[in-house]
Design a protein that fits this description.
Elements: H1 2-29, H2 34-39, H3 45-55, H4 61-73, H5 87-122, H6 127-141, H7 144-158, H8 174-208, H9 211-218, H10 223-260, H11 266-275, H12 279-307, H13 309-316
Helix pairs in contact: 1-12, 5-6, 5-8, 5-10, 5-12, 6-8, 7-8, 7-10, 8-10, 9-10, 10-11, 10-12, 11-12, 12-13
Length: 319
């Protein structure tokens, strides 16, 4: 297992390098010049040129990238052009809010998907199965930002039960924090739960028709024991892979949800930075999000190999 983890870590290095190049080129392809924004209204060419030189934008793109990447390796992600705060401090200030939203959204999606998917597989072709199928179809067809707006209109403006936006840290004040958290989490997790529900159902159906399940039933084992010890453990192998991918989708979804609900996380920070062409913040924030996604994939691979030892044995043997 140790060798498998080391190999996966080494394989992640070129992915991080390519991702950093992509992030750097992506923000520089966005129309607009941050020097013009900082120079204010009606700037002179001399002022704009001086700002560009100070920001290092007068250098070639390869030189700019190597400078930025070298600083990033030493933990320096640059300084915001707008408020002069170090990008790393801004990220650390916003990261807890995004982490709270991400963990809550992923937890809710699992709490919904696992029981619904298992129930649908056990009641295949029944009314329950059809009802769950209708839910997944509807949930996948509703954009999360539109669902968020509907939730605000209903539970905030209509019923007045929940605040329309903002955040109170859940760990600091759970009594108020959950009220700010519940609508963003539902809007973020509902579609992810639908996707996972379908995969859980399909995976469980494949396992429940295997020979060893029939053998376990023939031995007289209780259905609950067969379901938990035999069927669910083997069905979790493909589910874990899909769940890891869904975490990456949740990371992308937080950008939209944080904007809709004025949630002070990394997604909203990136949207504001893109609007003001704050290169340092956008590059640093995107790079950390990409690295977080790579880390999630690494953890998913490790769990996958733990659940099915044949995978790591095949990788170790070079098959």
């Amino acid at each position: 297992m140790i060798r498998y983890i080391i190999v996966r870590l080494l394989q992640a290095i070129p992915t991080v390098v390519l991702a950093s190049i992509f992030v750097f080129l992506l923000i520089h392809l966005v129309p607009g010049d941050p020097a013009l924004i900082l120079a204010g209204p009606d700037p002179t060419p001399e002022v704009v040129a001086a700002i560009r030189q100070k920001m290092g934008l007068d250098q070639s793109l390869p030189v700019q990238y190597l400078t930025w990447a070298g600083n990033a390796l030493h933990g320096d992600l640059g300084v915001s052009y707008i408020n002069q705060y170090p990008t790393w401090e801004l990220v650390m200030l916003r990261a807890p809010a995004s982490f709270e939203l991400l963990v809550a959204g992923f937890t809710l999606s699992l709490l919904v998907a696992l029981p619904l998917g298992i129930l649908a597989s056990l009641r295949q072709h029944s009314r329950i199965d059809m009802g769950i199928s209708i839910y997944t179809s509807v949930a996948l067809g509703i954009p999360n930002f539109w669902l968020g707006i509907l939730l605000i209109l209903l539970f905030s403006l209509g019923l007045g039960w929940l605040p329309p936006g903002g955040r109170v840290p859940l760990l600091e004040d759970p009594g108020r924090g959950w009220k700010y958290l519940v609508m963003p989490v539902v809007a973020l997790a509902i579609a992810q739960a639908a996707i996972l529900t379908r995969f859980v159902r399909v995976s469980m159906l494949e396992v429940l028709h295997d020979d060893y399940i029939r053998t376990a039933r023939a031995k007289g084992l209780q259905e609950r024991v067969i379901l938990v010890r035999h069927a669910l453990r083997n069905a979790l192998v493909p589910i874990v892979t899909v769940a890891g991918i869904q975490i990456g989708r949740l990371l992308g979804g937080t950008v939209i949800i944080e904007t809709v609900f004025a949630w002070p996380g990394l997604g909203r920070m990136l949207i504001n930075a893109i609007a003001t062409r704050d290169y340092a913040v956008v590059q640093g924030g995107l790079l950390l999000l990409v690295m977080a996604f790579i880390l999630v994939n690494l953890i998913t691979d490790i769990i996958y190999a733990f659940l099915d030892p044949r995978i790591r044995l095949a990788k170790d043997s070079g098959a």
